[in-house]
Design brief:
By secondary structure, the protein is an alpha+beta fold. It is built from five helices and 14 strands.
Length: about 230
């Protein structure tokens, strides 16, 4: 069983097969050796094994092609990417019944540093307050915004779940969407948004670190939990 690759006239021979078994509710995978064009019995593989396999494929320019990744990416796997957006001034949008927030909709304010964790069709967001590029030990804080559930998942606008997105596309969805409602019961800032956001827009000051509430986890926890 051979595969012919046209680009540089190399021949590849199939040596292993990845088989996926399922019963409608659960799936498991085995990696099976191939001998004399026959797929033999294999061994079960877990997500970590598969991640290592996909990383190997990604390192092979013939098999997968070299692709530039955003320099702000902290960690990634075939299933999920974690990256950060440093503190910066952005326009903030609201679509709600609160008159104070509607008056500042579309005006610029300082956002804190944010860390995103995205799968194919879901997005989580946290804040951080340590200087420089976040590392594994960087402590996470609740993202100080509406439209974020207690699980720290973003309430996505209609249609955003229909396709997978790059890091840049996810950011565009998040930053250009209007905050319309609190996402749950978890407190996200020391001061209520109705008072805090208008004050930040008016003063032009950077987002106060003291307003951020600990999430009780680190970047490393996001990496280990896979979400």
């Amino acid at each position: 069983m051979k595969v012919y690759e046209n680009t540089d006239k190399k021949n590849f021979e199939a040596v292993k097969a990845l088989l996926v078994y399922g019963n409608g509710k659960q799936v498991f995978c085995t990696l099976n050796p191939i001998e004399d064009n026959i797929i033999l019995s294999g061994q079960g593989v877990n997500a970590r094994n598969l991640s290592a396999l996909f990383d190997l494929i990604d390192r092979d320019p013939v098999a997968a092609g070299m692709q530039w990744r955003n320099e702000r990416v902290l960690a990634g796997s075939p299933a999920r990417t974690i990256w950060y957006a440093p503190p910066q001034k952005r326009d903030v949008f609201f679509n709600c019944a609160n008159s104070r927030l509607m008056k500042i909709s579309g005006r610029p304010m300082w956002f804190p540093g944010l860390i995103f964790s995205a799968g194919a069709k879901d997005l989580k967001v946290y804040a951080y307050r340590s200087p420089g590029r976040p590392c594994r030990e960087t402590k996470l804080f609740r993202a100080p915004f509406w439209n974020v559930f207690d699980s720290d998942s973003v309430c996505l606008p209609s249609g955003a779940r229909d396709n997978s997105h790059s890091e840049t596309e996810w950011e565009e969805i998040f930053f250009r969407s209007a905050f319309s409602h609190p996402g749950g019961t978890v407190k996200r800032t020391v001061t209520r948004a109705e008072k805090l956001f208008p004050n930040l827009v008016k003063s032009g000051q950077k987002f106060p670190a003291a307003e951020l509430i600990p999430a009780g986890k680190t970047v490393n926890d996001l990496m280990e939990n896979g979400k």
